[in-house]
Amino acid sequence: MGAEAGELPRIDFSGVDASVPGTGRWDATRAQVMDALATFGCFDAHYPALAPAQRAALFHGAVRPLFALPVDAKRRNHYGPGKPFHGYLGGLPGLHAYESLAIVDGPELGDVQAFADLLFPAADNAAFCETVHGAAARMAELEGAVRRMVMEALGVAVDEAQTQSAPFWHLFRMSEYGAPTADEKAREVRYGSHQDTNSLSVVCQHEVDGLEMQARDGRWILVRPSSPASLVVMAGNALRAWSNDRVHAPFHRISVGGDATRYSAILFSVPGEPTIRVRDELVDEAGGHPRRFRDYDYDEFVRFCVSEEGARHDDKLKAYCGL
Q: What superfamily would CATH give domain 4-272?
């Protein structure tokens, strides 16, 4: 089934200072964020803090050169056999013309430097590191602000919301999706329908659209950024479980069309604590919010999602730990 062009709920963050919660347009923006994540599970964030020039530098000066490297060099982006999805992905069954590289703790300059030294061992990579770190840090600021807004909107105490920032880490993933060949359809799905396993994802598309979101009525919407400063923020299953299903985790996929290669950068926030638990104060039997999920181990759930058993279920979280 094809996708129709459309726009997500649009939220303007230009009046929000992520470093000073509660000031400016914080409260009004928080209400919009909670409404969008509860209803759609995602939204288009107008976020001038990641300027169009900085975005262009990321893709033209850093991302494209990465994927021009030989495959053997890209395979050095590896975090060990116990973390197969943390680094380089390429040549995977069912993922035609797709490659991806990732940096654990991408918003940290030292981790970006270690990544660059691994992939460009004989090069002066200072400009690369500054560009990637700067973009990842700006995206992490937005993710942190949205996460805090959700906690506040759901009634988590402010001091507890502050302490919740520590047990999260970020994976910064850069991806390339090859354009269709002449004998392929006008538009081809490159990465199939799925929900993210993590808490929040911040997606930066560059020049070539391809992110498709599934609305609750089943329609697929091809996301058209509303401005040159647009980022897509979407919820994953960890936040869905934590919020006792008050936040929606949308299905989404990636398609390509035309003759241009698509590039994207995504910042994933991942719980640092191994066990994902429903918040007790978000369980309300009398109010129509009974407990929806059992506590679960995050890494075990990720392994379930890529197992043969997990592949048999569309809603993997419900299948794994739903009540």
A: B-lactam Antibiotic, Isopenicillin N Synthase; Chain (2.60.120.330)
